[in-house]
Amino acid sequence: MKRVLVTGASGFFGRHCLNELRLRGYEVHACARHILDQQDVKWHSVDLMQPGAGVELLQMVRPTHLLHFAWDVGAGFWSAPDNISWVATTLSMMRAFHLSGGERFVAAGTCAEYDWTTLPDHVHEGARREPATFYGTAKDSARRLIECYSRQTGLSFAWGVLFLSFGSDERPERLVPSIIRNLLAGRAAETTAGTQLRDFLDSREVAAAFSALVDCAVEGSVNIASGEPISLRDVIERLGNFTGRSGLLKLGALPMRPNEPPRLVADVTRLRQEVGFSPRISLDQGLQDAIDWWRQQQ
Fold first, then answer.
1. Which CATH architecture best describes the domain 171-196+229-264+286-297?
2. How does pLDDT run across 122-181, given as a tens digit for each residue?
3. Burial class of residue 179 in the structure, from the number of CB atoms within 10 Å of its CB (0-12 exposed, 13-18 middle, 19+ buried)
């Protein structure tokens, strides 16, 4: 039987993967500090930062597949020293998984691994890796070490490189929810001019893409994104239109962040052609669903 363990399973992406993997025929085990009530999933309340906790869990579950999302991306994560600890935890989990008989290890990377100063129009997986942040460097370091280990041992390994995403349960300070929450509350939503071109994907589609990546034999880095450029201004204005509160938008009220790339869009050829995944939820539908979710919270 195919048995998968998902770490960070109550998080932004992990929670949406559980049913996707179950529908693909997996016995699904979910690991998180705070467990959810989800049918047909075996939950394990574990803090992976505790020494030996992850190894003990793997020895007990003995999964054939491991989908590793767990990593602290709370406030200040770009420069947090704990990124070093998460590298160590990820490597420890990967090696314990392999030594316990695991077959395929899939983990989440980030577009912050790429060199943002020399980006092509569509960033392919072979683009220059020169991260400018501690978080990006930590993720890139983990990827390099796991790739080397997999080449030496034959462990099947894939690294899903995340671009921009949005959806329910997103951290409220991020772009899409911060605008939605302000507009729904009748407050002004201050933003930059929004000229930056970005690549957005609904968190449910991110989960579906990772689930497809788990359930195939594709190796190495795979961009997890839509591949479609859209300006932040366009996204912001759509949120204003969908909420009926465009008058509250204050485009250009905030300055651009330093060293922010003007364009960050993925080449998704590997995702589409090799993994066989294409998104089903349109950007407009995803934004409307996010608005509805936040309206329910308020």
1. Alpha-Beta Complex (3.90)
2. 999 999 999 999 999 999 999 999 999 999 999 999 999 999 999 999 999 999 999 999
3. buried
Cβ atoms within 10 Å, residue 122: 18
Contact 103, 65 (CB under 8 A): yes
> Does CATH number 3.40.1000.10 belong to domain 3-165+200-226+265-280?
no
Cβ neighbors of 232 (< 8 A, separation 6 or more) are: 175, 191, 192, 194, 195, 196, 198
Instruction: Give the C-alpha separation, 29 to 6, whole Å.
Output: 6
Q: How many residues does the chain have?
A: 298
Q: ∠ CA(187), CA(193), CA(198), 5° rounding?
A: 105
Q: Are 291 and 180 in contact (CB under 8 A)?
A: yes
Question: Tokens at residue 37, please?
Answer: 């009530």
